[in-house]
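Lecture notes, part 5. Sequence design as translation. It can be helpful to think of inverse folding as translation between two languages: the language of shapes and the language of residues. The source text, in structure tokens, appears below.
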């Protein structure tokens, strides 16, 4: 039986193995396109633009996401119970108190965002506050605080930068065609390889990005359970969140990965192939993993 510590360590190792592979793929794609096109400056320009836009999104992530979801800030006097709960868990986790927001939505759900622990935001829906018991709510908040403590926003930004660069390089290569290397017979095989890579690399980048996202959800589950010392609270919360039929009106593909559970209920019904494109692991797997953990 896995312990909380070994489970967290395993997910961390798998995450960084995926990131290493991602980086190697990016380096290979950059070298291949640059060599075939005989134009490394294009590669540098496209990469720099992708990095600049991604960093801008990361720096203002809290404001962007709050604007997209319409969440409203609360103070301690507005909801003392949730405020104290977050405060106590922050003390246990050694984290500064994040800004707390409420989403007026019936679906029980929550998310965390922000570029670092000092600029973090936690948002919970009214449905979450109404439908979960205290230990279940603690499990959800601990999960979201774990995302902050594990620096998942920074990690996801790095991953998005990698994926964005690969997609941008592939589009650029396919647009300008073979003008850079089409006349060089020595490059014949590499040209074909570059065309195949330009078509398949963005798909591979997306699959790796989503795989990392799923691993970080497993890690946040384990870290949250370690924080509360009660995995069953989060397991029961995930059961209730998954079973709730209400839609999340403000959900969008660009913010779905932030929530503790996918706001798109149809995503829970999948087979292994569609599972590769999910932002979250199947709820059943997360619940089983939590209940198999040994404190």
């Amino acid at each position: 039986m896995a312990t909380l510590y070994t489970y967290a360590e395993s997910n961390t190792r798998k995450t960084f193995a995926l990131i290493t592979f991602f980086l190697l793929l990016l380096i290979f794609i950059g070298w291949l396109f640059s060599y075939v096109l005989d134009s490394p400056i294009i590669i540098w320009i496209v990469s720099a633009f992708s990095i600049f836009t991604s960093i801008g999104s990361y720096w203002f992530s809290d404001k962007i996401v709050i604007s997209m979801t319409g969440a409203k800030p609360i103070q301690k006097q507005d909801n003392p119970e949730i405020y104290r709960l977050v405060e106590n868990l922050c003390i246990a986790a050694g984290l500064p108190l994040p800004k707390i927001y409420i989403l007026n939505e019936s679906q029980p759900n929550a998310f965390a965002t922000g570029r670092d622990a000092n600029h973090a935001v936690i948002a919970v829906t009214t449905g979450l506050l109404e439908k979960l018991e205290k230990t279940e709510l603690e499990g959800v908040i601990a999960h979201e605080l774990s995302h902050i403590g594990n620096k998942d926003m920074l990690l996801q930004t790095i991953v998005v930068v990698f994926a964005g660069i690969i997609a941008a390089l592939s589009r650029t290569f396919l647009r300008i065609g073979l003008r850079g290397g089409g006349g060089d017979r020595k490059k014949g095989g590499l040209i074909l390889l570059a065309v195949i890579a330009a078509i398949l690399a963005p798909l591979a980048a997306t699959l790796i990005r989503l795989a990392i996202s799923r691993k970080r959800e497993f890690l946040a589950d384990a870290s949250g359970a370690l924080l509360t010392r009660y995995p069953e609270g989060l397991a029961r919360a995930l059961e209730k969140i998954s079973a709730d039929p209400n839609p999340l009106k403000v959900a969008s593909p660009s913010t779905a990965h932030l929530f503790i559970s996918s706001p798109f209920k149809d995503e829970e019904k999948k087979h292994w192939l569609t599972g590769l494109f999910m932002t979250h692991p199947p709820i059943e797997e997360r619940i089983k993993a939590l209940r198999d953990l040994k404190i």
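The translated text above is only one of many valid answers, since several sequences can fold into similar shapes. The chain has eleven helices and four strands.
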